[in-house]
Amino acid sequence: MSKTIFDKVWEKHIVDKIPNGPCILYIDKHLIHEVTSPQAFASLNKKNLKVLRPEKTIATADHNVPTIDQHLPIKEALSRNQVDTLTKNCSDHDIKLFGLGHKYQGIVHVIGPELGITQPGMTIVCGDSHTSTHGAFGSIAFGIGTSEVEMVLTTQCLLQNKPKTMRIEINGKLEDGVYSKDIILYIISKISASGGTGYFVEYAGTAIRSLSMEARMTICNMSIEMGARGGIIAPDQITFDYLEGREFAPRGDKFKSAIKEWKKLKSDSDAKYDKVLKFDASDIEPMITYGTNPGMGIKLTDYIPELSLNTSKESYNKSLEYMGLSVGESLLNKKIDYVFIGSCTNSRIEDLRIASNLIKGKKKADHVNAWVIPGSKSVEKVAVKEGLDKVFRNAGFEFRQPGCSACLAMNEDKIPDQKYCVSTSNRNFEGRQGPGARTFLASPATAAAAAINGFISDIRHN
Amino acid sequence: MEKFKSFDSTVMPLNIENIDTDQIIPARFLKATTRDGFGDNLFRDWRYDSDNKLIGEFELNRIKNNSKILLAGRNFGCGSSREHAAWAIYDYGFKVVISSFFADIFKNNALNNGLLVIKLEDKVVDRIFKKVSDEENTLFHVDLESQIFNSLNGEIYEKFDINEYNKTCLINGYDNIDYLLSQKDKILNFEKKYEK
């Protein structure tokens, strides 16, 4: 029977199927961080259980870390305790930790791929919904809760129901100035923040094939914002080239034989999906969100609509009221206060290159606070080597240290009440970037242009 | 995990769609290393203003009915995978969440903590909202064994779906970790074949 890539990877990892219940799914790689793991270890310790395969779990500190003065002890006691608890748990259970100060520390979904930990055909989980990012390599990757973190630690397995499959094809050529962030914001605006719930999405089509690995990661990363459990893209030469020579990727003959296996990871031409959607790349323009869920997005040149998909008028109005916006308004020329370039969606080196190219030799608008938070120490290192840190600083941006930062505002990096922020992150929920903060999600290019101009603008006519 | 028992309760209506886990429990309250006490900050920024004063009109503050059932608009629990959302709802005193549509990760997290999620059709959810809006103190009964949710006066009577495995776990207070540990031999055998 013909199969999708998802079916192939899934079936390979089934230990057993419970009648009228979920499957026992074997997990190849488990990533953990300081916020969603402590309770799992506490429970493990209480039951006197061991980590079954410590070598298959890798830890980093990212959600709750400061983005300045990382060499100093963390000031905030609760945050410090969480990071210290992670360090102790990893040490007690022999788990490799890329903690603060380590050359590989960074946002968990940035470091997995860049270190070659993430590989095609794997099952990868993490107590974080944006684990979907890793699907860009042709792996089944999804976010889990803390009880599930405990399950993976103790048994290297999870109980999971097989999701339905959806194929989203984007064909054609992208216009200049349109980035992968625009593609995913476009898709979510078409199917809503719940349009993918219950599904695992495979992205395909010529426009997806043309993208770099980092651009593909941005798309898979935001699969969860349409409710999908994850996103997956079949690996190809671009994937193999990206992986070659990375720290934890196979090397030499092992790499060659791995490629042979990885090449089998594609959907059969007559594979059946529960749902298929097709879009034309030429219809995609720079996108921006105007509301409080990622489905509330428009083309920069459009106007705020009367209503968005799968939303009642009451909820819609509540959302616009929170944002201080009205139906029929254009976001072009809207004055903004903050720009945040970072997060597991858009903090990789290509994102920083795109942003820095747009601002080279320019100054940010006086009234704007602009922050650049590289996704990892490795990204930071390359950025410094290329002089991007200087480009940002000369333009008046703050170039900080790696972490999740203002994407979820767990640390001190918060957008103040009612302030507008153009953010390259993934969620525009109420209060996500700080109590009362108003978020516009956009690409790194649109964010950089907003910082320079002081208002939202279309980079195609900048 | 506590065993799930049948009970009668009023319903707490929260007629908003796409309630994400950042609303259920904002990230700044995720700094604990234990599972306790998250109920205090459930829907924090809807319950309290920036000066930490109660916002009177918000349902959880306005309606005093000691409800164990939370009724919410579609796509409940979307966003982050934080299990703290399920902990916060349970810790506040809810045993059941009803909606026409749940986010996948939230659903798993809820079931792993003895919090029953009941999915009903949109039009049924609308009828319950209407009923509760007319009479705040209407009593409902949840019976997991027979998979029935009904109002005591019989106006609303709905059968709901749940898979046998999850049902057995909830009723007996079993958790998935115990189950997986009991399957360890199978897992080790799988590893042997898998790693060849």
Task: Describe this structure as you would to a colleague.
The complex is a heterodimer of chains A (about 450) and B (about 200). Chain A has helices at about 5-10, 40-45, 75-90, 110-115, 145-155, 180-190, 205-210, 215-220, 235-245, 250-260, 315-325, 350-360, 375-385, 390-395, 445-455, and strands at about 15, 25, 30, 55-60, 95-100, 125, 140-145, 155-160, 165-170, 200-205, 230, 275-280, 285-290, 295-300, 340, 370, 400, 420-425, 440. By secondary structure, chain A is an alpha/beta fold. Chain A folds into 3 domains: about 5-160, Aconitase, domain 3 (2-Layer Sandwich); about 165-235 and about 260-285, Aconitase, Domain 2; about 290-460, 2-Layer Sandwich (Aconitase, domain 3), CATH 3.30.499.10. In chain A, the strands form 5 sheets. Chain A has a 5-stranded parallel sheet. In chain A, β9, α6 (about 180-190) and β10 form a beta-alpha-beta unit. In chain A, α2 (about 40-45) packs across α5 and α12 packs parallel to α15 (about 445-455). Chain A is globular and about 55 Å long. Chain B is of the alpha/beta class. Chain B has one domain (about 5-195): Aconitase, domain 4 (Alpha-Beta Barrel), CATH 3.20.19.10. Chain B is about 35% helix and about 15% strand. Chain B has 9 helices and 8 strands. Chain B has helices spanning about 20-25, 45, 60, 85-90, 105-110, 120-135, 165-170, 175-180, 185-195, and strands spanning about 5-10, 10-15, 70, 95-100, 115-120, 140-145, 150, 155-160. Chain B has a 4-stranded antiparallel sheet with strand order 1-6-7-8, with no helix packed on it. Chain B has a 4-stranded parallel sheet with strand order 2-3-4-5. The longest helix of chain B has 13 residues, at about 120-135. Chain B is globular and about 60 Å long. Chain B starts with 6 loop residues before the first strand and ends with a helix. The interface between A and B is large, with 70 and 55 residues.
